[in-house]
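User:
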Amino acid sequence: MQNDPALDQLCINTIRTLSMDAVQKANSGHPGTPMALAPVVYHLWQNHLRYDPDQPLWPNRDRFVLSVGHASMLLYSTLHLANVKAVDDDGKPTTRPAVSLDDIEHFRQLDSNTPGHPEYRMTTGVETTTGPLGQGLGNSVGMAMAGRWYESRFNKPDAPLFDYHVYTLCGDGDMMEGISHEAASLAGHLRLSNLTWIYDSNRVTIEGHTDLAYSDDVETRFRGYNWHTLHVSDANDAAALEAALVEAKSVKDKPTLIVVHSIIGWGAPHKQDSSAAHGEPLGVEEVALAKKSYGWPEDKFFYVPDGVHERFAQGVGARGKAAREEWLAKFDAYKTKYPDLAHEFAQIEAHELPAGWDADIPTFDADPKGVASRDSSGKVLNAIAARVPWVIGGSADLSPSTKTNLKFEGAGSFEHDSYGGRNLHFGIREHGMGAVVNGLALSNLRAFGSTFLIFSDYMKPPIRLSAIMEVPAVFVFTHDSIGLGEDGPTHQPVEQLASLRAVPGLTVLRPGDANEVAQSWRVALSHPRRPSCIVLSRQALPTFDRSRYASAEGVQKGAYVLADAPDGQTPQVLLLATGSEVSICVDVYEKLKSEGIAARVVSMPSWDIFERQDEAYRDSVLPRDVEARVAVEQAASMGWERYVGRQGALVVMRTFGASAPLSELKKKFGFTPDHVYAEAKQQIARVQGK
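Assistant: Predicted structure:
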């Protein structure tokens, strides 16, 4: 591409003015950062990012993550000017632009594909949903880890298929959030040299100058994390930006942080270095002044001068197309020489699982003593992962407790000298773990992360984002109840189940025995566009005799009749439970049955799956005319009213737990067969009394 600084500046100013106009018309948004960082993004995309606008999901593309999601117009303007093509629901490129000029004019409007913050799946070219600051940083670490795993799995000396780089644009807000520390520490430990963070140090946040609350020496901090650090004193210095980006790519033993100093709202003379340009439109007069400072027609809006689209086509467009075509030729030869690996990669790209992926999942024999669901989960997970090479994950330093170690031959650990390992060691970084797992899932790996259920509170932002993005991350949570006993209320989850169940698009499964665990994993892995939480016990759960009780396949419908009234009788009382409390209900059922009282046990491992069944099925499990109902769960009551009604009995947690042996806690809080039996009899009497 011929050197033409004037045309480059025209392109940069087009990004700026499109961003200003969009925010002004919407009367909402953040114009300052797009204006200040337009040179950074332009030079990165135009001269360095390996990305084909015609094939935006090309597997070996470089990834660009806009962690400063409030600066979304910076990305939308670039996607438009680079003429990135939209993909359809199957990921196939179309001839439609990912972001048209009309889309930019409808920034932040209902049903537009230019929402206030970038949304994965909604807008082609958006690699991840970034809204909460710092999440994009964690995602980018997961993407870089995935890149290294792909290299280890598929690259051959004569066929190096994968070598993509991950670039992330972040700001002061990202750096203040704790997740940035977790993600950066892990990336430095793993020596992810395919990762570059570009840090916009503009020293401005919503409240004002960062001196109000922030005085970190960021470069020193990152050198302590084992990062290479570079410094660009002026975001408008093209030569310095170019030199920094070239050097970042040349570093082979650690990730790179490029600190770039910018003036937020550059070109808006009255609002330079102010928080106003960060969090609100500039105003008509300020927009006109900014355009004047750029030498721009003040009376033109959403204006793209001649030559700008062509300049992008000559740069990122031509370079990306050539790189993709070279890769495709290489992959065609690869398919001939390494057909099994090529087929495996094709399945990954298609979001498929290999034939027989669940063939080795164990069936657990009846056992009154049973096994902790965390233990049966570990066996099921290993059976699946041994057959699905792209199942990868780990825990926040708790795999001996969460039983998520992958133990089969060749599983190994993912470390800086063995990127093909399948066991990830996140350290005690729950928040970072969740975001990294999302980054792995966004890279089409079937990723999981695990910790104790109580610490799901530390992971709520990435769990929520996994549901928004519809990525199939799996979050394994153990130690799911007051069954922790002596560990006490700080470690005994009470409100966490209700919190997770409240997330739209998230499947929450709390299995009641080992065979329900097996089915839960089948459900989680069978949905390529839905995240799951599998919630497991530390204490042993009896394994039900499935020759006496219903098949655990009922888990696939969310809730099912585990034990029913004999001879087709209408039950007098319904006993509803999840997890470890299902066995209590079975004991009560047997006692009532011995007294000639018709009862039904309904195991409800997944409310959200049950709610997605048709009304006829739901009514068949919970007949409307059976009013006597008891729900039993070692968790907060929220939500159970929909299943038992206002007059049904709730044997639940209404306070935090306590520190004591489990047997004593069960008595204290009423989780005993005798107490549940008494509640059932009272319910029957109440209904009969009517």
